[in-house]
Amino acid sequence: MPHRIVIVGGGYVGLYTALRLQKGLRQGEAEVTVVNPENFMAYRPLLPEVASGTLEPRHAVVPLRAVLRGTHFICGALTGIDSERRVATVQLEAGPPRELEYDQLVLGLGATSKLLPVPGLAERGIGFNSLAEAAHLRDHVLGQLEIAAATTDPELRRCALTFVFVGGGYTGVEAIAELQDMALDVLEGYPELDRTEMRWILVEAMDRILGTVSEDLADLAATELTARGIDIRTGTLLESAENGVLQLSDGTKLASDTLVWVAGTRPQSIVGRLGLPVDERGRLVVDDTLRVHGRSDVWSAGDCAAVPDPEQGGTCPPTAQHAVRQAQQLGDNLLLTVRGQAVKPFRYNSRGEFVTLGKNKAVGEVLGRKVNGTLAWTLRRAYYATQIPTWNRTVRVLGDWAVGMPFGHDVVDFGSREQPRGAFQEAADR
Ligand SMILES: Cc1cc2nc3c(=O)[nH]c(=O)nc-3n(C[C@H](O)[C@H](O)[C@H](O)COP(=O)(O)OP(=O)(O)OC[C@H]3O[C@@H](n4cnc5c(N)ncnc54)[C@H](O)[C@@H]3O)c2cc1C
């Protein structure tokens, strides 16, 4: 009987593990099933450009059914596992839950926003982890510009033009940089507004932004952002977000309708309910072959796992480049397991990283060399255009970038799509 391999999560880990198996499995060796709540994989490093409208949301994703050939796909979410019976329970979009029997189970569940107990944060904040959040933020910022341009109330105008991001890691820096770049670019279409009225504030608890990149690159990024008018508050905390006012630990009070919380992530909550070993950060404990500690039939990698870092010691950082390499090794180890051979450890040396800061601006490190400005921006784009799976997506991404060069950012606020039944409901209520 073929091995039954169930892969839960269709992100970097899930997709690249499945692709490795798809390529390596011989006829009849195994049946592979991928489970994901959406029928696409969000290509997360491109989310800042979705937020700025540089990329169409549909172009920054990989359609799972199009790339998973010969692999079953189920649109649903894992709700539990029965380790004795080797069964994973999946909640479908509709109907009763479905039980999937497995011989080998892969958990690539990723991460979600990590909230801190800040009064008002849960009600007022928005994260920046998903395609929906990125697309929403773009519409939200454009919506705030419309509010500011239309109102005659100076307080409302000031509130609408104040954008606060909490968390100065690369996600927060990329998000604020891309969105502010878009806002500056579209401002010429708003003769009622002046760029000096906009306030973009980046709040970071540590004494510098971009804590995971080298200090001189972080300084370059900070200099660029400050020159563009972004107010960086290091060594500062958000203390509360109640009654429309954001209170910072340096005493500043900001009336604002935009609070983006990018101050860290944690594994999906389901991870802690699976009865598997987790570390103090809630990540699954795996060995260097990516097997969950003490289990011969459960594997994990990526943001939901504490993977030993072969390069620096400790555990691997939560990056896409690590998740892809881990998934490739995980796929190879599943092939070896199916064939009764010894599995191999994960080995990887990071080749560099980039932080986008808006059009023609980025900082990065490639093979130990620091790059910035247009060169870093071009290298970053070339890297992602060639890495995103399928030519179909490469062409669409390149197309969006090419169109954006002469025409700049689009100013259309499509926020109304978030209430598609509004007009129909109103008609029905008459
Ligand atoms: C805005 C942003 C920018 C980033 N930029 C970079 C960058 O420039 N460079 C870089 O290297 N890294 C970057 N990262 C980090 C990188 O995207 C992650 O490290 C990577 O996505 C981790 O892969 P993963 O497979 O572990 O998780 P993900 O890619 O998040 O995939 C997890 C999948 O599991 C699914 N899932 C969740 N719960 C369930 C459930 N109960 N059942 C089934 N499926 C479930 C999710 O829907 C998702 O599809 C960025 C991240 C963000 C948010």
TrEMBL record:
Statement: the UniProt record of this protein carries the keyword Acetylation: no
User: What's in the keyword line of the UniProt record?
Assistant: FAD, Flavoprotein, NAD, Oxidoreductase
Give all residue intervals belonging to the FAD/NAD(P)-binding domain.
Answer: 4-327
- Please name the GO terms that the record assigns under molecular function: NADH dehydrogenase activity
Any keyword Membrane? Answer: no
Q: Name one Pfam family in it.
A: Pyr_redox_2
Would you identify the family this protein belongs to, as annotated? Belongs to the NADH dehydrogenase family.
Full protein name? NADH dehydrogenase
Protein source organism:
Saccharomonospora piscinae
